[in-house]
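hey can u check if this looks right to u? its 167 residues, i copy pasted from the old doc so theres a chance i mangled smth
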Amino acid sequence: MENQHPSQWPIDRLEQDCRWTFGRASGPGGQHRNKVETAARIEHLPSGTRASATEERSQSKNRDVAMHRLRCQLAIEINSPDFHTGLWENYNRQGKIRIATSNPDYPALLAETIGTIRQHLGDLKAASESLGTSATQLIKLLATYPPALDWLNRERVAAGMPPRYAP
């Protein structure tokens, strides 16, 4: 398991490296939201990566949302160049990537996509060919998580390429 990317770790394993904090959420939602500690914040201690969720009135739902956001953020922030999930065969149908952002495999697929793009120094054509899809499909996948698209633009600028992709 330790050779896996943290975005693919089971939640109980990932939580071993994390710290949770809870608080009150401000904004609409009524008395329950404003009097009960429903806001959930999580920090991955080794990397300092943080995520939070406050939009639900239930702490357990906010915990789930915050954990999913943390896993997606780890997919961007932790570079694991040789990380291969074996998930591409499940979600790549005739070159089209089919996965819901709520799917538990989504963060790991995102991490593998980002790792492949890193291996190809931001060259989407080369990365997409190695994954058996198109550059357009990779952009569509990254656009489903806007911080991933922001990451791509920063990588392209660092490699001397134009930041052409907007959400």
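Strands lie at 18-23, 39-44, 49-53, 92-93, 96-97.
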